[in-house]
């Protein structure tokens, strides 16, 4: 394991200065990255001092490094977790063989696609969130947004390092393309659907960081199992950052719930909106939307690609070693709920072909626990309102369930019923316009917008009344 080198242009613990070719290639990519950051990163805050954490090593203390930074000067680095000695491939056709330290020729395209798909989500979310600073409900929230943004930028660096190091010319071309595609651009969109959806307001941002960053967590957990060791080590470090993103989302929604309960108590539940708060019905609709577009990110329920990723040892299951006994999964069967003649029944699917669904199961369960925690909070605040996680069959654009309409409980409904009721279930144009009216900037120290409660505590033992962003 190389030592952490914080003095080079690209901070790293991968021994970059001993590999001049690679170092030059990455230093050539760097100016394009900075240009991209300045034009597509947080709009209007590039010259401000932001109280951010920067990774300086891969151990726990490496994260204790907080200070004011202008975002374009953030030290984006390349960090891999320590190698596990004598690590072996944990699943699939190569189960028990030494982990791959170079790219196995026969899996080169498969692996490149896996890395590029993950990489593409990182700059995409920065682009989706770039206008949010202008309506930040507090400086504390603005700071959290920017922390998430710079770390997504670092995730891009992590993936570009793999492309440059292991894929030669093709890898460099892919790295260029990652700076060329744009979220929501009709001609050159990002690869995955949810990463082309606009994040136009802070309610969407908190739902996105709860549900879509949580997809990121599960994808990284599956890639952390990879038999391709450099990918595994990269993803294990990325997971430490992902945890903060989900914290921002979950506590953000929690603080909205708290404020909504206060407004409902003061003015009556039906008058939350006219008193500048977000009513429960609208919260539920945004939850329904962002959960379901995130559920789509796992791909089709039955997928030969998923089988290939597993068989080749490139992408595993969440906690493969701890939770499973059969790591080859050639004889296993998955009971897949399907719709047949208008009724739900189950179909037996070879387990390897169901690997997307296996990972989705873990994701859905984790999302269910988030909703439980929100409901606990509502209970504690003395409210009878509860949020509900919709069925994974509801509002799907990809896979088996996209071929039919389902209500949020997962019951099949006619397309007429869907049309007449979708405004009850998903944010309507009116809802979105209303949420927009609540979004106004609160950029004064210690103040907060009316629709959200302040956090219980600040960042790094600082109070909420701290100048998390020093406006230039
Ligand atoms: Fe990320
Ligand atoms: Fe993230």
Give a quick rundown of the structure.
This protein is mainly alpha-helical.
Structural class category: mainly alpha
Strand order, sheet with most strands: 2-1-7
What is the name of the CATH superfamily?
Ribonucleotide Reductase, subunit A
Task: Please count the beta strands (DSSP E, at least 2 residues each).
Answer: 7
Task: Give the second-level CATH assignment, the architecture.
Answer: Orthogonal Bundle
Helix amount, in percent? 40-55%
- Helical run tally: 12
Order of helices and strands: HEEHHHHHHHHEEHEEHHE
Strand count, sense and barrel status of the largest sheet are: 3 strands, antiparallel
* Cα gyration radius (Å): 23 Å
Bound molecules: fe (ii) ion
- Per the CATH scheme, the topology name is Ribonucleotide Reductase, subunit A
CATH class: Mainly Alpha
Beta-strand content bin: 5-15%
Mean pLDDT, nearest integer? 96
Poorly predicted parts: none
- From the N-terminal CA to the C-terminal CA, the straight-line distance is 41 Å
Q: Give the overall form.
A: globular
Integer tally of domains: 1
Structural summary, described in words:
This protein is mostly helical and 472 residues long. The protein has a single domain, classed as Ribonucleotide Reductase, subunit A (Orthogonal Bundle). Helices cover 47% and strands 7% of the residues. It has 12 helices and 7 strands. A 3-stranded antiparallel sheet has the order 2-1-7. A two-stranded antiparallel ribbon has the order 3-4. A two-stranded antiparallel sheet has the order 5-6. Strand 3 and strand 4 form a beta hairpin. Helix 1 runs antiparallel to helix 3, helix 1 runs parallel beside helix 4 (168-180) and helix 2 packs antiparallel against helix 3 (139-166). The longest helix is centred in the middle third of the chain and has 39 residues, at 229-267. It starts with 19 loop residues before the first helix and ends with a strand. The protein binds fe (ii) ion (2 copies). One fe (ii) ion binds at residues 152, 213, 216, 242, 245.
């Amino acid at each position: 394991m190389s030592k952490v080198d914080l003095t080079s242009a690209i901070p790293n613990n991968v021994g970059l200065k001993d590999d001049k070719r690679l170092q030059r290639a990455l230093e050539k990519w760097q100016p394009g990255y900075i240009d991209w950051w300045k034009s597509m990163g947080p709009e209007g805050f590039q010259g401000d001092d932001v109280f951010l954490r920067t990774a300086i090593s891969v151990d726990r203390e490496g994260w204790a490094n907080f200070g004011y930074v202008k975002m374009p000067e953030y030290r984006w680095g390349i960090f891999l977790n320590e190698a596990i000695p004598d690590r072996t491939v944990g699943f699939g056709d190569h189960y028990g063989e030494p982990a791959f330290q170079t790219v196995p020729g026969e899996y080169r395209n498969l692996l490149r696609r896996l890395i590029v798909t993950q990489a593409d989500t990182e700059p995409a979310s920065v682009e989706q969130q770039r206008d949010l600073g202008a309506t930040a409900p507090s400086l504390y929230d603005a700071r959290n947004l920017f922390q998430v943004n710079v770390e997504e930028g670092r995730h891009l660096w992590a993936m570009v390092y793999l492309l440059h190091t292991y894929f030669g010319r093709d890898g460099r071309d892919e790295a260029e393309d990652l700076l060329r595609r744009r979220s929501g651009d009709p001609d050159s969109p990002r690869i995955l659907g949810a990463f082309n959806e606009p994040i136009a307001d802070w309610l969407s941002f908190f739902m996105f960081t709860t549900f879509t960053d949580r997809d990121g967590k599960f994808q990284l957990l599956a890639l952390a199992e990879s038999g391709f060791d450099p990918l595994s080590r990269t993803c294990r470090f990325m997971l430490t950052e992902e945890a903060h993103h989900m914290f921002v989302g979950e506590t953000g929604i929690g603080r909205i719930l708290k404020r909504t309960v206060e407004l409902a108590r003061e003015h009556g539940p039906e008058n939350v909106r006219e008193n500048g708060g977000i009513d429960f019905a609208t919260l539920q609709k945004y939850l329904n939307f962002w959960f379901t577009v995130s559920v789509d990110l796992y791909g089709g329920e039955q997928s030969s690609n998923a089988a290939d990723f597993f068989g080749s040892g490139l992408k595993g299951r969440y906690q493969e070693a701890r939770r499973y006994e059969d790591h080859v999964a050639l004889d296993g069967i998955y009971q897949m709920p399907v719709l047949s003649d208008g009724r739900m029944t189950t179909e037996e699917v070879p387990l390897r072909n169901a690997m997307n669904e296996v990972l989705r199961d873990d994701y859905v369960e984790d999302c269910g626990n988030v909703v439980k925690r929100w409901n606990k909070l509502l209970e504690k605040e003395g409210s009878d309102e509860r949020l509900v996680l919709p069925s994974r069959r509801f509002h799907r654009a990809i896979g088996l369930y996209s071929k039919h309409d389902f209500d949020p409980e997962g019951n099949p409904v006619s397309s007429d019923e869907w049309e007449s009721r979708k405004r009850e279930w998903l944010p309507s144009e009116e809802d979105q316009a209303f949420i927009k009216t609540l979004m106004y900037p609160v950029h004064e120290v210690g103040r907060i917008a009316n629709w959200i409660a302040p956090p219980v505590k600040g960042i790094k033992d600082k109070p909420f009344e701290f100048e998390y962003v020093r406006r230039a």
